[in-house]
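ugh ok fine here u go
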Amino acid sequence: MPPLALRRSLALVVLVLAAFPAVAADVGTLWRLRDGAGTVFIAGSLHQLRRDRDGLPLPYGQAYGEAERLAMELDMDAISPAALAGELLERAIDPQGRSLRASLPAASWRALQPRLAGLGLPEAAIDRFEPWAVALLLASAAFLERGYAPGSGVEGQLQARAASDRKPIDGLETPAQQFELFDGLPRIDQVELLELTLKELDGIGPRLDALEAAWRAGDLGRLEALLLTDYRQRPDLHQRLVVRRNAAWVDPVRGFLRRSEDTLVVVGLLHLLGEQGLIALLRKQGLKPERFVDGAWQPDPQLRRITPPADAPVQPPAPAPIP
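structure:
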């Protein structure tokens, strides 16, 4: 951290922390790396939080206050919303003109109809959509219906604050790379994703509540049980959606350590868990992450395989936007 930053006044710290509604008991999942000119904080994100309980854990506000710049999966400030919507629509339509109805089992197509009607979409409007796009559409609508919103999520709040404070944000990926994660899936996997989404939607509320509670408590064992247990049933999807991206982010994070400015990296919580998570990969590079627990930075013990609690659900991944 630059010497000037070390001399920040108490008044400034109070102002920064006051900008983030927080519950003091919340811990979240936050690590720190100090192995270079600057410090890198790595925070696990829930991309969407309920608007009526969107306070961030206090340590997140503290890390934001110390950081001169941020890094996120996407730098949304550098992306045109119109261009993003246009690319999504272009990718959502099947280039081969295949019928969604013809691709789905009859029972799944019937189950889809009331969902579409609730969104005001006639079946003809989405019959040429790719299955992955319909799955994300349904999941996003379910989140909104339950009071969740991207602007209330960890990135949304920090991005708004960074814009106000004129803190720059680096993007680790491009929208095209994220769209390709799903658009590049084989058709059979896309259909399975849509079918699983239809089955999971009604029970998503309690699952999201459990996930948020574990995140706020910083309970890594519970978080692994809720998230990684599902993906271990589909290692191919875990590799595509999570592991390869984690590996691609190692070099940028190491680059942030070489800068004189301190950086707060914010990525989806799933990317920080397990033996193939970003924290574990950085440790394998010889770095020594510290984790904020019990009110202080403490050496993070070597990651070990965590046995899921007996009551942990074992089921396909819950429908959600890009991890």
